[in-house]
Amino acid sequence: DRTVPSAQTLADQMYVKNLEILDQKLDEHYHRECKKALAPAIAQIASTDPDAGYHRGPVKGLPRMNEKLAEYVDEGKPFPRAACVIDVLRNSVAFDTAGQILAAFDALESHEGLQLVRYKNKYHADSLWNGAPPPFRNLMVNVLFTYPPGEPDPAKRFPIVGELQLTTIASVEVKKVQHKVYELLRAWEGG
Questions:
Q1: How far apart are CA 95 and CA 190, in angstroms?
Q2: What is the mean pLDDT of residues 126-146?
Q3: What percent of the chain has pLDDT over 70?
Q4: 3-state helix, strand, coil in the chain (%, to 5)
Q5: Structural contact between residues 168 and 101, judged by C-beta atoms closer than 8 angstroms
Q6: Which contacts of 119-125 are long-range, i.e. CB under 8 A and separated by 24 or more positions?
Q7: Which of 10, 70, 81, 87 is the most buried (most CB within 10 A)?
């Protein structure tokens, strides 16, 4: 027997499908705006390490967005659960110092083309991940990007939320090792 999905489930699935199309179309524009906002902070990076600087992340795909929807259903999140999928456009910037991370955060906060939605300070002493200190330290910032910038007509604007991970080069080195553990935990929890 096949169970017919509820109207809410179908609406969530349709939303993330539309979100996938939108993120593919806006990815280049989003990164251009982020680089523009962060240019003064990025210019402060002295390191020549290949991990230093701005790095585009992959666009979150439909299979992962659907996994997130299922998690939100299990967690009892209210409809529309698809509105919780807010990190489809992703990037990271690895800095030399914490001061440069703060300069980047200030630049994002004051940049006209991006609106700060939320942030998580994973450097904070009270920051926990599954009851333990997070395996990867960063300042995770979600920003609302609207394309085209400055468009006054809401019918012609396309808003999307992106996620920036502001971190240090040292944290990136640790992440390379710890990410394998994260992948194993996710696989273990999922199966």
A1: 33
A2: 79
A3: 95
A4: 50, 20, 30
A5: yes
A6: 123/98
A7: 81
